[in-house]
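Standup notes
- HV: blocked on the assembly model, inputs below
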Amino acid sequence: MLVYTIKRLLALIPTLLAASILVFLFIHLIPGDPAAILLGDTATPEEVAALTREMGLDEPIWKQYLLWLGNVLQGDLGTSVFFREPVLKVIGSGAETSILLATMTMVWIVLFGIPIGIVSATKHGTWVDQVTSGGAMLFASIPTFWLGLYLILIFAVGLGWFPSSGFPSVSDDGGWTNLRYLILPSLTLAAPNAALIIRLVRASMLDVAREDHVRTARAKGLHPAKVAIKHIFRNALIAVAAAFGFTFAALVSEAVVTETVFSLPGIGRLVVQSILRRDYPVIQGVILVIVVLYMVINLLVDLAYARLDPRVSLK
Amino acid sequence: MTFIASFLSMFRGRKLAIVGLIWLCIVAFAAIAAPLLAPFDPLEIDPVARLSEPGMPYLFGTDHFGRDSFSRAIYGARMAVIIGLGSVVVALITGGLIGMLSAYFTRLGHVLMRGVDVLMAFPALLLALVLMTLLERSVTNTIIVIGVVYATTTARILFGMTLKLKGEVFVDAAICSGAGHGSVLFRHILPNLISPLLVQASFIFAFAQLQAAALDFLGLGLPPEVASWGNMLSEERIYVTRAPWLLIFPGALIILSVFSMNLVGDAMRDSIDPRFKDDIAGV
């Protein structure tokens, strides 16, 4: 297991480096002088000249990259054109909202996705299965922002049960009750992903159900519910666990839209606004942070996978 | 004829998938015949009739410019088909070629597939957003961006399949009988990949609709004047309380089309992969 972990960690380095090169090149792919782009429209020629020297823009491009990478490794992701603050600080200010939103969404996904998936698989072929599988596919076909808009219309504007937009920090007045601001957004975000997990739990349970050890368990007269949970679901969980890395990517993508619909002060909305404001240092920083996070999560998922299924690390 | 017959046989006993297929045919017909079917010019502004309720002569009502929503929805079908097919073509050709060549020429594959891995480290919509910031808002650029995003998954899938096929006896036989690389790849291996490619195409088509709508919503997709379902939702969303029908019709059209495409894709995949054959009888 240790050897496998080290191997996976080492394999991560080239991919990370390559991704960092792409993120670095992003600024250079925008037409125009990178220093002028990074400083925004209000910059004076002196400021541009100073940044040009600081970034080493007169140096060859590989030197610029090493300089940039060195700064990034020290936690310096540049300065936001719009906020006039370090990029890392700007990203950090959206972290609370995004992390809480993601956590709540994950709770919904597990709460709805797994039980419905199990029911769908155990009732496989019946009308229950057809309704749940069909329903899951329908939910995966709804545009996130459309669902969000209608949840706002029904539960915030119509019934007045939840706030329609924004999110005050849990350290503000109201404390943890402020989480009610995140109920509709997290449900919106959970819907397509829970649908995916339902289909996955179902498919992998049906796969496992064909294996010999399940037949043995049935043959010795175990209660069907016990077979479903202890013998089938536990093994199917391996495949489901592997999908959580993939779910993270989907969450990030849809969080960009959801946070915009509900005007949440998170990282997803920050990306969209930074794009519209042409705040390139922030765009670059957020992408870098998300890509690194995504790779780390995938690594953790793979390690968990290897632990759950010893056949993987022995290969 | 035999191709159509074998295509239709995939849907035997799957009523919902057949309904989906019929709906997709309707969308395709609307896309082709849009100028004949649309009662009004989708761009024609009628300030007097702005935000009219659904009825006659405006079947789906009018938007805040007084444009006929029904006509815009029909031209939106055309845009949906263009975006869907365009993304599928870009994704399958670039992704397919990368996957096949990588599996066939092992050394080249090491380089190309690492590149694919790197691109896959970027969540789909984020990659699309970043690419859109570098490009202008246009139909072609939207297609390219969505196509590139799904080219990565296509490359992965085709890489695995080509690798498997490469070890088959019929490929050895072709090589022994003196077939060149091009001939082995495109005349012997490619025909065996048509069915999985078709399945992949259906899913890309479906996802492309959702991605394009999301890009439109964020103001980074098609130019705002283009009549697309995503733009209709995006532009009229501030009128949702006053004119809820403006969001219901385009929203329902997107959902129905994506759902149908997913059903059709599922039916095709299940008929190709016999493991699933007797599983999901109805759905």
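- HV (later): unblocked. Residues 2-73 of chain A form one domain. The mean pLDDT of chain A is 83.
- Next: hand off to the docking folks.
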